Amino acid sequence: MINILEFDPVITVFPYALLYYALLLVSSGLALLAVNQSTRVIKGALQTALVIIFISQLALLTLNLLAYQGFQLTKVLFPLAHRVLNLVCLLWLIWALFHSREKTFSNWIPISLTVILLLVGVVFSLWWLPIASSQEFNHTWMDYALVGFTLAVILVSTIIYYIRYRYHIVETWLVLAIAAAGFILYLLLPSPGSMPAIVMLSQVIYYPLLVSLAAQRIRKPEPDLDLSQVNLEQNGQLRANILDSFLEISLQPSQNKLEKALTHSLSLYLMADLLGLVQYDPGTSQAALINTYDLIREDHIEKVELAIDQMPELFRKLVQHETIVSNLDSELIFEKNYLMQTSGYNQIGNMLLYPLDETPNQLKWAILGLSPYTNRQWGLEDIQRLDCLRDNLIKVLEKASRLELEARQIGDLQTELLQKETTLSHLSAIYAESQAELQVLSNDLFQTQANWTDEVNLWIQRQKELETELDKLQKTIEENQERMAEVDALRYQKEQLEETILRNSEQSAQIKTAIDQASLLLQKLTNQDETSGQAEESTG
Questions:
Q1: Which DSSP symbol is given to 132?
Q2: Which of 45, 44, 124 is nearest to 78 (CA)?
Q3: What is the CATH T-level fold of the domain 241-401, as seen in this structure?
């Protein structure tokens, strides 16, 4: 047996691994081109799977290049990313194999599994990072979990594929077998390192088979045909047209289109030359033949107004809910002639009037079939075929009425919406003007606030100056008060001095008077002495 170590470096070690990635990318790319050029009916699934495979391998090549450049985190997580992304590729490839055979196969299975696998990869990476430096990824419990899940997916898919389809397409079985063999040999032949070399070798083997698988055209086995099937094939185109017409009914967005699709379908269903809908309101004298389909010209004719008094028998039967089958020219002559005049046809042929169940408080409806071209005979079989569709025909017409009502409501809502939009535009313009005015007022307010701030600051400064001057005045007043006190004291002293001076003046006057008196007295005494002297002298 060849030692695994002999081809491990070629596949797992970069830059030799470029050959591995080149082969996978080239194989998936060529397979994608083969699918695009193939004639298989269902190829969208295989295209999607091959695009995912190509992108995944390109992402792995990019991660390997980053690891080779020395990005430590990429180098540590690359083995886990390699296993998860290749498992995602295998899941999408298996899903494409199933979807290519059965278009109804669920698209959510690979999407949900891809999301789950990516989340598992994130969880495993958080588990692996702390221990990555101490051991290799090969044959860890995470590796075994991914390999076991892969083998289970391949085994279950192979069994289901064989049970459902059993087609002898060799490439499908080879792809599944080689992929499973790679994982089984990987488990049986342990190899050192962190990359599954033998699994990668199996990819190198089965990826080129994708090109051949993509070019295959799926052919389902044809069962034996019996006589009834031959008869069905003879009328296949007609039945396809009828089915297409009936399916077209459910796709119509308006009452008029839905009624046109209905008359077209019923005309094919009954093979009627002309088939239209009679609409009658018992409260009026007029009725209408609307959306009549001409099977020969393959077109609808315009609405035909019907006067009730010109077709009394027909509308009497309609009111009484009776079916009319007229295959003779001698029957309903008056009604047929009136129909020729109003419709513009030179003959009417045979007539079938099939009233539909009446809905309370609504219009009466009936199906009118005519055969101006083929003179087709109407019979019980036609009535029975319409009986099978009676309930659904009523539902379709009720739906048409609802569509018309909803269309009017939508029109009203659109009108109201237009008015609201106009009002909104007007309000938006007013709002814009208000915003502009608000901006101007805001600017004015800002300017005013700025001016007020300057004035307030000036007032504060002036107040401070006034307070300083007031303090000075207060000090001056206090000093003046002290001086006034001194002045009052001096004034008091002055008054006392004046009183004293006055008293002294009075005393001086008194003293002066006393002195004067004393002087007078002394003078008198002096004079007396002189007189006495003189007298003594004269005596002596």
A1: T
A2: 124
A3: Beta-Lactamase (3.30.450)
Element (H, E) at 278: strand 274-280
For residues 214 and 216, what is the distance between their CA atoms, to the nearest angstrom?
Answer: 6
Q: What is the pLDDT of residue 4?
A: 40
CA angle 365, 368, 369 (to 5 degrees): 155
Of 80, 87, 78, 60, nearest to 149 by C-alpha is: 87
CB neighbours of residue 117 within 10 Å: 18
Residues 6+ apart with CB under 8 A from 9: 16
Under DSSP, is residue 306 helix (H, G, I), strand (E, B) or coil? Answer: strand
pLDDT score recorded for residue 232: 38
Count the neighbouring beta carbons within 10 Å of the beta carbon of residue 310. 15
Question: Would you list the domain boundaries of the chain?
Answer: 4-215, 241-401
- Dig out the tokens for 535 from the structure: 């007298």
Instruction: Mark the ranges of the chain whose per-residue pLDDT is less than 50.
Output: 1-10, 41, 219-241, 243-245, 247-248, 250-251
Query: What are 217's two structure tokens?
Result: 């055209």
Tokens of 232: 């069905």
How far apart are the C-alpha atoms of 196 and 201, rounded to whole Å?
9
For 29, the token pair is 């790319």
Q: How far is CA 253 from CA 24, 80, 244, 257, 399, in A?
A: 49, 53, 17, 7, 10
**SS3 annotation, 344-390:** CCCCCCCEEEEECCCCCCCCEEEEEEECCCCCCCCCHHHHHHHHHHH
Residue 31: C-alpha distances to residues 88, 94, 210, 211, 486 (Å): 18, 15, 6, 4, 124
Nearest-10 crossing angle of helices 72-99, 44-68: 170
Distances (CA, A) of 271 to 289, 294, 324, 387: 19, 10, 18, 16
